[in-house]
Each structure stands twice: as C-alpha cells, then as structure tokens.
From TrEMBL:
One of its GO terms (molecular function) is DNA-binding transcription factor activity, RNA polymerase II-specific. The gene is Nfx1. This is Transcriptional repressor NF-X1. Residues 11-68 form the PHD-type domain. It comes from Chloropsis hardwickii. The lineage of its organism: Eukaryota, Metazoa, Chordata, Craniata, Vertebrata. Pfam families: R3H, zf-NF-X1. Residues 725-754 are annotated as: Disordered. Residues 640-708 form the R3H domain. Residues 14-66 form the RING-type domain. Keywords: DNA-binding, Membrane, Metal-binding, Nucleus, Phosphoprotein, Repeat, Repressor, Transcription, Transcription regulation, Transferase, Transmembrane, Transmembrane helix, Ubl conjugation pathway, Zinc, Zinc-finger. Its main location: nucleus. Belongs to the NFX1 family. The chain crosses the membrane at residues 326-345, 472-491. It is found in: Nucleus.
Length: 766
C-alpha cells in the first residue's frame, strides 16, 4: 500500500540517482526487497565495478538489499512480468498491467497463485482454507492456507523409535522422534566382561560370538582340550592348537624339518603335549632389542618357548647426536627405547636465539628455530614504559598506552584532545611565557614546556672592578657571571684567548649575544693603576664566561680551536704553547741539542763574527738547486718511473695551489711499502710540501699538502739531476752492432739497436 501511494503521487525516489520516479518513466523492481529504481539507473549500476559481488562470480548487487543477481535487466516490464513496456492508465497502478498478478506466493506449502491485480511489493497471504493434520498424524484441523504455525494434539506420538523395538512415549511433537533411551547389557567375545549400551546404537551390534572386545587374553580351551587360547579377545572362533602334530612341521628354531629329524631317529609326535624335537643348532631368532645398525639374535641352542634375555650391548646417541652411550639390552626393546629417549648429553647450545641478543643455553638442544622466551624489556619510544613482548629483533612497537586526559601547554592556550598517545610532547604555543621570572624585565620568549626559562635578553649596565667604567651588557650575562679565583697563568692561557674570540669573531658564533666587549680586570686601565700590583690584582676574582648556554658555547668553540691546532700540527705546522705552560716548564721541556743542532749553532756564531747576512748567498750554493741525499738518489735509480711519477704529481699540485684561489691543496697516494713512503717524504721536503702518513700496515698511505707561498718547485728535479750525473760520466759501451751467426741463415751485420746510447740505471754505480 505504501509503494502504491508513493508511486501514484510521484513521491518515491530512486536510490541510485536520488530523483523522483515518474509515473511514465521505465522502472525495475527488485524481487527480494521490492525497491523500485529507474531502468537506466539500474543498468548503469549493474555495469559499474562498485556493484560487483565479493566473489566476482555471483553477478551484481542490489543497491538496497545487496542481493546478488546474475542477469542485468534490459526491458521495462510490469510488476508481475507479463507485459513489456506497460502503458500508463489513470485508473490503474503506475507501471502495472492491470491484470491479475498470478505469481506464486512466498509460502512453499501454498499451492494457490496471487489473485489480486498486478502490484508492487510482496504478494499478500493466501485467503483460502485447507485441512491439515497434526505432527503425529492422528488428528486433522481446518486452517488458513500458508499458515506457518504447526498443529499439535494432546495424544502420545507412538511412532516406532530408531531401535525398531520400542515406541515414542512423547506427546505429539514436531520433527523426528528422539533416539531410544533404554539400555541393554552386552557381553564381550570371550564372555568375561559386560557393559551397558543404549538400545539401537551402533555398539549394540552382535555377531553371535559377542558384541565387543575387552582387550584381554581370550583364555578359551582350544580344540585339543589341553591348551588355552593366547590371542586377545577376538570375535571369530579360536584357532587350532599350534602344537598339534599335524600343524608343526619344523623344529622349534624353524631351521630343520621334522621329517629329516625322524630319519635321524627322533620319536614321532602323537599328541600336542609331546615335545618337539630339537635340531641342536643355534636358535638365531631375532630378539626385540638391538638397533638399526645391528640386530641381536638368540645365541642359545634350538629350544621351545621364549628366548633368553640378550647379553649384547647397543649404542645409543643423545637427542642432539653429540654423545654416544653403550648400554646392555637385557630388558628388551622397550627398555632400550626408553633409554634412547631419556639419554641426554650435558652440552649447552651456544647458538643465538631468534632475538639475536641472547644465547640458547639449552642442554642437548635439538631446536632449529631457537625461539627466545625472555621478555624484551627495552624502553619504548615514549621513554616511560618497557616492551612486554617476547624478545625480538628490530625495533619495538610503539607504546600502546593512551591517555584520555587533555594535554595542554603551560598556559593552557594550546590543547591536544584525547586520546593522547603515550610519550606525546606538549603542544607548541605561540603565546608569551607566563611563568614567574627572577627579573622584572619584559618577556620576549614564547610559552614553553621546559621548567627553566631562557636567560633574560634585556640590556643593562655593568661597572668594572674599580667602578671606573660602565659597559652595556645583556642582563643574563650580568646575572649569571660566576666569580672564580684564577691565577695569572690560567687567565692568560685559557680565558683571555676565548674572551677575545667571543668579542671579535661574532660571525663564527652565529649569535648577537656576545657582540659586547667583555672586560676583565686587565682591560680597564684605571683598574690597573689603582691596584697595588698587577700580579696581585690578577689573583683577585675575575669574571669568566656565562653559564648555561654561554658555557656550552665556550666549550664548543674551545674544542673546535683545539681540533684545528691538532690538524695543523699533523700537517707539520707549529703550535704556540707558551701560554699553556710556565717558563720553568718551558726550560724543562727543551729538546737536547744533537750534532746537527751544534753545527748550526756554530755556523750562526761564525756568520755573526764575519758579518754575513743569513739571506746572502756568496758561494751560489742555494741557487745551484736542491740537494738530494745519496740514499734518495740510490732509491731513485732502482725505480726511476715511480720517482718520475711522484715528482710530476708534486709539481702539478704546487702549480695548482699557487695559481688557484685556495691556500692549501692535498693529494692522497694509494697504500705502498715503507721505501716508497720514505721517497715521498724526502721529495716533499724539497718541494716544501707537508707530508703525513695514515693508517696501519698494510694499508698505510701518504697524504701530501701544498701550501700557497710555502711550496715551490725546485729548478732541477731528481730525474734531471740523475741524467746530468750520468752524462758527466763515461757511458758504458751499450751502443754496438750485433753480429749474427751465419749458421742461422743470416749473414752480415744487423742494424744498430738504437741511434742514441741506452742508459741502464740498474747497472750504474753511484
């Protein structure tokens, strides 16, 4: 009724396009939920990827009920499906054919078709009356067709139960009758045990010998009447006596037939109690003990009955296979198996566990994965809690704990609303800090989560020690200046250089905080004049660098300066240490003069006596070129190509640094032996180049550094000096004609080997 009213008044909307369904528009109705859609809308929806079912094989889904359909609607039909493209009639329901519906109703047991006009929505219930019987079938009643309620009477069911022997005692009920609940007594096959089972169950089955096996020894008398059955309780008749003469054909060990023993004079057996003749051989039956490597057999003579216990030993291994143990197998295979399972060595496993942090330490370990059972215990990213997961590799998961309280900044202006993950920092606030401060100056920094506020940056005035001069400094410098008693040496060697650095090199500091000239006791001239003695004034307290951020900056700059001086020292530069030690220490730390030092000192006194200038060169010694040592020349003759390459590289490095913008340039040689490194160090002294060796053998290498204005190329290279020395000496007779042997088929003289003399540096003596 609701669908008919909305379609007639054009108030029904299509779920796909959300537009009103007109009375003349082609539509399609879902047969599961009875929603009405535009035909074109449902076609587009059915072809879209969003409408496909999850298994991709069931077709497309209805937009309303998600019921899957295989076929896509193509034609416009009435609600009952009889008429295609029905015409609209003012007196009929829109989109209907005006004829009887005739569709089968939803109720499966209703044989009647729908008898109202073509309509949207489900068909109404059937109005016809039919006669139905109760559940037990004993009574009948007249009810509406399609009524889903079941009919029950007050009579006893009486139907036969599953056992086929008893009847149902319940009142008329729906469905099948319950299984029979009566119990019957059953006996085992051997007749020694009984049990109670439900009537009609599978356990009630009997084959005439019994109903079940009690798993005990049967014990019934065999057909011989003298022996009992030794089999487990069984359903079939017992077997023949295994000792009957017509059954036994061999001796007890089974190696010799009885017919052969009868020929040898043995007595023929008549009944089952007669002894079975023995062949006299070793039994040889396999025993229950032993292992896969070696099977133990009975060593007794051919006998009846069970074999004696084994007297051999067997090797068993621990479960990890590290140790072997020898045991006696007197107890049989079962005892041997127990010993093999329980035997373990005392070796502890040293392999890493799955976490990669701990060792296994398991005794006689056979594990392949070595999973770690310890708790991780490392701190999580929040820094407050620890990981409670089993010990693992890699990073721990994020902290799962969450706060449901608001997290605010100090002033409360910025808020992070819950849930707030554990370890979250307070939000950043751009408001001015509202914390109480030690001074009354204006606050210029923002709200922060740290307990201590930054130093005050308000400008104030500071008097010198003698109250003579006033210097404008920041308030934090005045407030946090610490008075320390320092000696003259410490002040000059440590404090003063860095005070100058703070006051002059402001670009390196990267801050405007220290652009003010910091004045100590020695900087104010009136303070010096008013003091009794400058030495005693220096013993008075002086102001040193500020604390907090200023102190941190001081140590950072000091470390940079020391590192720079160490670098210069490695490159061969000298470092001034006079400010760091006293005069007494300088005297004690002087080097002892050697022969070279004494010779230089004697030449210096002689030059002063003869009034010879150090820069003069009367004998043209310096202009004659560099002096190469004999050892260097000898090494160069052995490997002239290596020396030539080294000099070429040094010459290029010196020219590049002198012509370029940089003050220093370096070159790193590959690792080489000690002799080659010595050649580079000696040549570097000639070229004025700094040379340093790095790393350990066998990767020790040399790095050379050319400095602008200090390094220069000599007028004569080492290779040219060697060439001149060789030309000044008589050349060895290496230029000759080679006379060939005529027996080789060549006659006459061959051409000269070379037009110029060949100098073999390996044959030249120094």
């Amino acid at each position: 009724g609701s669908l008919i009213e909305q379609l007639t008044t054009e108030k029904y909307e299509c779920m796909v396009c959300c537009e009103v369904v007109r009375i003349v528009a082609p539509v399609w109705s879902c047969q599961n939920c009875y929603h009405v859609f535009h035909l074109n809308c449902i076609k587009k929806w059915a072809r879209s990827p969003a409408s496909q079912a999850e298994d991709c094989n069931s077709g497309w889904r209805c937009p309303a009920c998600q019921n899957a359909s295989v076929q896509v609607p193509k034609t416009y039909t009435c609600f009952c499906g009889k008429v295609h493209n029905p015409e609209w009639n003012r007196n009929e329901i829109p989109h209907s054919c005006g004829e009887l519906c005739g569709k089968k109703r939803q109720y499966l047991d209703c044989p009647h078709l729908c008898n109202i006009l073509c309509h949207p929505g489900p068909c109404p219930s059937c109005p016809a009356f039919v006669t139905k019987t109760c559940e037990c079938g004993q009574t009948s009643h007249s009810v509406r067709c399609g009524q889903s309620t079941k009919i029950h009477c007050s009579n006893v069911c009486g139907n036969t139960l599953n056992c086929g022997k008893h009847s149902c005692t319940q009142v008329c009920h729906a469905g099948k009758c319950s299984p029979c609940q009566l119990t019957v007594q059953q006996v085992c096959y051997c007749g020694s045990n009984f049990k109670q089972v439900l009537c009609g169950s599978k356990e009630e089955f009997s084959d005439g010998f019994g109903s079940f096996s009690c798993q005990n020894i049967c014990g019934k008398k065999l057909n011989c009447g003298r022996h009992n059955c030794k089999q487990v309780c069984h359903p079939q008749p017992c077997q023949l006596c295994p000792r009957l003469p017509q059954v036994v054909y061999h001796c007890p060990c089974g190696q010799t037939p009885l017919s052969k023993l009868l020929e040898l004079g043995c007595v023929e057996r008549k009944i089952c109690t007669d002894p079975i003749p023995s062949c006299g051989k070793t039994c040889g039956k396999p025993l229950s003990c032993g292992s896969n490597e070696f099977i133990h057999t009975c060593e007794s003579l051919c006998h009846e009955g069970d074999c004696r216990p084994c007297s051999h030993t067997s090797n068993i291994y621990c479960r990890c296979g590290f140790k072997k143990k020898v045991i006696r197998t007197l107890g049989g295979f079962f005892i041997f198996l127990i010993a093999a399972i329980t035997f373990m060595c005392d070796k502890r496993c040293n392999k890493k566990r799955s976490c990669g942090r701990h060792k296994c330490t398991e005794v006689c370990c056979v594990d392949t994965e070595h999973k770690c059972s310890l708790v991780c215990g490392r701190k999580l990213n929040c820094g407050l809690h620890r990981c409670e997961e089993p010990c693992h590799r890699g990073s721990c998961q994020t902290c799962w704990q969450t706060s449901f309280d608001e997290l605010t900044c100090y002033c409360g202006e910025s808020v992070i609303y819950p849930p707030v993950p554990c370890g979250t920092q307070p939000p950043e606030c751009k408001k001015t800090c509202t914390r109480p401060h030690d001074c009354d100056h204006p606050v210029y920094h923002s709200c922060h989560s740290e307990e201590k506020c930054p130093p005050c940056t308000y400008l104030t005035q500071k008097w010198c020690m003698g109250k003579h001069e006033v210097t404008v400094v920041y308030w934090n410098m005045f407030l946090f200046f610490t008075v320390v008693s320092l000696t003259m040496v410490v002040y000059q060697s440590l404090i003063l250089p860095f005070v100058e650095l703070y006051s002059t090199d402001t670009e390196q500091l990267g801050t405007d905080e220290f652009q003010v000239q910091i004045q100590g006791v020695g900087d104010c001239s009136p303070c010096v004049t008013c003091c009794p003695s400058f030495q005693s004034c220096m013993m008075e307290p002086i102001y040193v660098l500020p604390q907090m951020k200023s102190t941190t900056l001081f140590f950072r700059i000091a470390a940079i300066s020391i590192a720079t001086k160490l670098t210069d020292l490695q490159l061969g530069d000298s470092v001034e240490i006079s400010r760091l030690i006293t005069k007494k220490e300088m005297k004690q730390a002087r080097l002892q003069c050697d022969e070279e030092c004494l010779a230089l000192q004697r030449n210096r006194r002689l030059a002063e006596a003869l009034e010879i200038d150090d820069n003069s060169d009367p004998f043209n010694i310096r202009s004659s070129g560099p002096k190469y040592s004999d050892l260097l020349k000898e090494d160069a003759r052995k490997d002239i190509k290596f020396v030539s390459d080294i000099e070429k590289e040094m010459r290029m490095l010196v020219e590049a640094v002198n012509k370029g913008k940089h003050t220093k340039k370096s070159h790193c040689y590959p690792p080489m032996n000690r002799d080659h490194r010595r050649i580079i160090h000696e040549l570097a002294q000639v070229y004025g180049i700094e040379s340093v060796s790095y790393d350990n053998e066998p990767k020790r290498n040399v790095v050379i550094t050319a400095v602008k204005g200090k390094s220069s190329c000599p007028s004569n290279t080492l290779t040219s000096v060697l060439d001149k020395e060789m030309q000044s000496r008589p050349a060895p007779p290496l230029l000759h004609y080679k006379q060939t042997d005529k027996s080789n088929g060549n006659s006459g003289l061959s051409k000269p080997l070379k037009e110029e003399p060949i100098i073999d540096y390996f044959d030249v003596q120094d």
